Amino acid sequence: MQTNLLSRPTSAKSTNMSDKINHPQLCQWLESVAISRDKQAFTNLFQFFAPKILRIARGKFPNEAQANEVVQDTMSNVWRKAHLYNQDKGAATTWVYTVMRNVTFDMLRKIQGNKEDNLSDDIWPIAESMSIETEIFDDHLEHANLLSVIEELPQAQQDVVKGFYFREMSQEQLAVHLNLPLGTVKSRLRLALGKLKVQLGEQHD
Amino acid sequence: MISHHPKFELIQAFVNGDLPASLSAGIAIHADMCPVCQQTIAQFTEQVAENSFEEEYLDRFIVDDNEALDTIASIDFDHMINNIVESSDIAVVVPKVEHTISFNDKTYTIPAALNSMEMGKHAHIGKLTRARIQLNENEIHTSLLHIQPGGGVPEHTHKGFELTVLLAGSFHDESGEYVKGDFIMLDSSHQHHPISTNGCLCYTVANDALHFTQGINKLLNPIGSFIY
């Protein structure tokens, strides 16, 4: 187990919270991301947290790419999970720390050859008495890429594709959920997949 | 009432994410039942978070050339931000599903911290039933151990450590009575002989086989590795 930079006694700091961190501001940005998907607020959060996360990650991962991945994954979780942050339960820094620690923990487990089982959110839940649906995609770049292509599909096809692949609903469940005949669900899915193949194929060439 | 807690060093390592999954889950299970430790963890997490994201604190430890780091950062970061905000993906939360496990016709709720862990098949020996939890942590073995009323583990020591978190029921040994929620960490200096009068279910983590120390039980040593 490596020595942790943060486990040193910090009596001086711990008793009186630093006034250098503008907590209300961080909270407000996080709320803006949660409520209105505010990209500027996210950029502000990113500029505050990312360099610090990178430094901490560099202490835990010798490999630069892995440290970058911690930043990427932590900040993309902040974007995706901002609505799960509850101001009454603690500071924004505490919440982002939890997200970062969880990402780091799962990555270390994966690298150390244990397992790729993402246990951290069970051990340190970031939303109370709720669990977060497991991510289907590990590769965030590919995921983002795929999502942007899906966004270009007609809405009717998007609904089917997202339900089928991201919510893991069966075609039958989707038919009920979307109130459509099963045949329509099947043909929309087929059409959408055809388009996706063309789009993604072009981008990969 | 819970009277056995993880010591503060363990809680620190837990909050820092430095413990293996097995021990982390053990502390999470205990904290779920123990408001005192829950509060200690919350306070310490807040402190560590504050320190982590405070510029000056970090600078004390960082030997990296800041300029170099900033250069890397500025290139990657804009790209990263754009990539992230392009995604319309939002984490969907669902109510937690309770998982259960049965031992000898009794059904228990599995602690939430173990929800994504893979359970092995049950193995029986006398009044003990063990389900191994597959965490792939080399010499560290993690299990659910069920003891039927009147059952016990013969007197033994450990070459390494042995953590027991009592999930249901109770047991006693030379040092006293243990109840639901107790976090019992023993090392090689401890020798004990736990007995459960009314039966119990434990979460156990050990990094080596048990070593039986008494009379005929020494014959059991080959199965020490079975139990934990």
UniProtKB/TrEMBL annotation, chain A:
CDD domains: Sigma70_r4. Residues 47-110, 150-197 form the RNA polymerase sigma-70 region domain. One of its GO terms (molecular function) is DNA binding. SUPFAM superfamilies: Sigma2 domain of RNA polymerase sigma factors, Sigma3 and sigma4 domains of RNA polymerase sigma factors. Keywords: DNA-binding, Sigma factor, Transcription, Transcription regulation. Belongs to the sigma-70 factor family. ECF subfamily. This is Sigma-70 family RNA polymerase sigma factor. It comes from Colwellia demingiae.
From TrEMBL, chain B:
This is Transcriptional regulator. InterPro entries: Anti-sigma_ChrR (IPR012807), Anti_sigma_zinc_sf (IPR041916), ChrR-like_cupin_dom (IPR025979), RmlC-like_jellyroll (IPR014710), RmlC_Cupin_sf (IPR011051). CDD domains: cupin_ChrR. Transmembrane segments: none annotated. Residues 137-205 form the ChrR-like cupin domain. It holds the Pfam family Cupin_7. It comes from the Bacteria. The lineage of its organism: Bacteria, Pseudomonadati, Pseudomonadota, Gammaproteobacteria, Alteromonadales.
